[in-house]
């Protein structure tokens, strides 16, 4: 009688934990997170704010030397970026953003819309307000967000090994204190200096595939102890010691 009771209680516990695990799984797939939820499948020809939100998340997959426009228009370049993102994470690579793609993005983002491995805090070691630079605080933060998604793609391409950042947004005063040039992209919030355990050349070389128009690394003046990635209107890559 006692053993039967124990067995009975054990089976209830097991059933309960299976049910609980099931709930957790369902909750993870049915509900996105505190950041952003897509409500329709997006494909070539789609346009709107939801397309632009997608473009930000796949901006690290534009193809070598390219930069994805964040224009809210789902054209061939966006489809190709989605396909590369899908391939990178082992999803069906059809270039259409449906639930499997969105669920992967939900799993990769925090509630503040940053990718899981990067934070606003590390993108701004200068001040907490994002003010005092060359653009508004909102623009500087928005630029930093796009950069974080590009860095998430870079990190994933390099085997998900940690990438450390040493400098991001700088106000004019932080920039002069750091000895940065007066036209530094750090003033716009769209430059990041990378360090960490990966070699600076490995970072500089791979960054060419992830949407950075500006890459400065070993061999470029004052860039032997980090690799700098940023954005600008035309391409400028220089890391002579890495063959770039
Ligand atoms: Zn820099």
UniProtKB/TrEMBL annotation:
Family matches, as Gene3D superfamilies: 3.30.1380.10, PGBD-like superfamily/PGBD
The Peptidase M15A C-terminal domain, residue ranges: 117-230
Peptidoglycan binding-like domain segment(s): 47-104
Keyword vocabulary terms for this entry: Signal
Signal sequence extent: 1-21
Claim: Ribosomal protein is one of the keywords in the record: no
Keyword set includes Signal: yes
Record-linked Pfam families: Peptidase_M15_3, PG_binding_1
Entry-linked InterPro entries: Peptidase_M15A_C, Peptidoglycan-bd-like, PGBD-like_sf, PGBDSf, Zn_M74/Hedgehog-like
SUPFAM superfamilies xrefs: Hedgehog/DD-peptidase, PGBD-like
Name this protein carries in UniProt: Peptidase M15
